[in-house]
Structure formats: C-alpha cells, structure tokens
Amino acid sequence: MEFIKGSKTPKTEKGSMMINHTPIYRNIDVKNIRKKMNMTQKQFSKTLGVSVKTIEAWENGRNKPNGVAMRLLEICKKKPELFVELKIINEI
C-alpha cells in the first residue's frame, strides 16, 4: 500500500491494485449497522452527514444509499472504531 504513504499512484484493475466492488446494503443491513454502532437515527445521520429522513428512508426501504453512502456504510460495518479514531465521533 505504498500509495497511502504517497510514494505511488493507485492503479486500476488493469494495474497492480484491484478496487473491490461497492457492496450493496439493504434496509435491514443499514438498521443493523446503526444498531451495532449503538446509535439513534439522529446520531447516525450526523455521523454519515445525511438527514434523519434519509436514514429513515433507507431503513424503511423507501430509498437506497448511493455509492458514496454504501462505502461509508462499509466502513461503519467493518471498522466503526475509525469514526472515533478520526474524531468524527467523540466518546463520552
């Protein structure tokens, strides 16, 4: 991962780096991720930078998260502690 250190440029699928497909999260997945992070819809919306109505719509299946939101949900699912480490969330 030398590109992270700034010594290389990331390459596409044809080069030395493979970018994984964006995962798809269903409404129940969004709700489970939020609950795993022990957050209310309001807290989760502020964490992701979306409105509470957006979280409600995702969880009720009225709307689906877009690509960027899917990547954020992937981080929430795989490394929720990163939000604390980056001081996006302050633990009390």
How many individual β-strands? 0
pLDDT averaged over residues: 88
- What proportion of the residues form beta strands (DSSP E)? under 5%
- Rg, rounded, reads 15 Å
Number of helical elements: 5
Instruction: Report the top-level CATH class of the domain at 27-85.
Output: Mainly Alpha
The low-confidence parts are none
- The CATH H-level homologous superfamily of the domain at 27-85: lambda repressor-like DNA-binding domains
Q: Note the main sheet.
A: none
By CATH, the architecture of the domain at 27-85 is named Orthogonal Bundle
Oligomer: single chain
Give me the secondary-structure category: mainly alpha
Measured as a percent range, the helix fraction is 40-55%
Dominant shape? globular
Task: Describe this protein's structure.
The chain is 48% helix and 0% strand. The chain is mainly α. It has a domain at 27-85: 434 Repressor (Amino-terminal Domain), CATH 1.10.260.40.
